[in-house]
Specification:
With 222 residues, the chain is of the alpha/beta class. 35% of the residues lie in helices and 14% in strands.
Length: 222
Amino acid sequence: MALRTSPVYLGLGVPRGDGSAVIVVPGFMGTDLYLREMYEWLRRIGYSPYMSGIGRNAECLDVLVARLGKTVERARCERGGKVHLIGHSLGGILARSTAALRPELVRSVITLGSPFRGISSHPLVLQMAGIVRERINRERPRANQPECYTGYCECTAVTAVQSSFPESVAQTAIYTKTDGIVDWRVCVNDDPETDREVLGTHVGLAFNLYVYELIARRLASA
């Protein structure tokens, strides 16, 4: 309600977009559906939004990054310019991995409560991740590794997100110290100039009016 009754939600008081493509990426166990609010808002302020097309975010990270990569290629082809990526939670890790692998296609990455510096999450989240890992290993015996779906996995997606972030891609890390799901200290960059703190909860970052305002300004500056 706070978001929908704010001027920001109506596109007032924030920079207008230039029509460039912006892809929204859902968090762990989520689908594109819950980011529909942000998707429609991005269109309202002048961007060309795209859903990630990754399906449910509960799959091998290599598979998810490959799916996201196809959406990035399609958006680049249709809009004719580099794309912006906005990732919530684990979606931010997928976005950063994609940018590291295909920097020539990505203009900026904005993460919302994304633990890209290390895994430090609520025990229930880690338990769910364990269930997903078991399913992945069961469905893909050839990839049976104890480190699968952890920060120690040696897959392309994890290796990419742990590498140096491309200097050509603008980055912003939005976080909250009252996250409740992940430790905010693993959601920030080395450069404090690219970090932005807001008040709120982990899930609420996808519906936070202050986050929306930051997104509009960071997209414009990128």
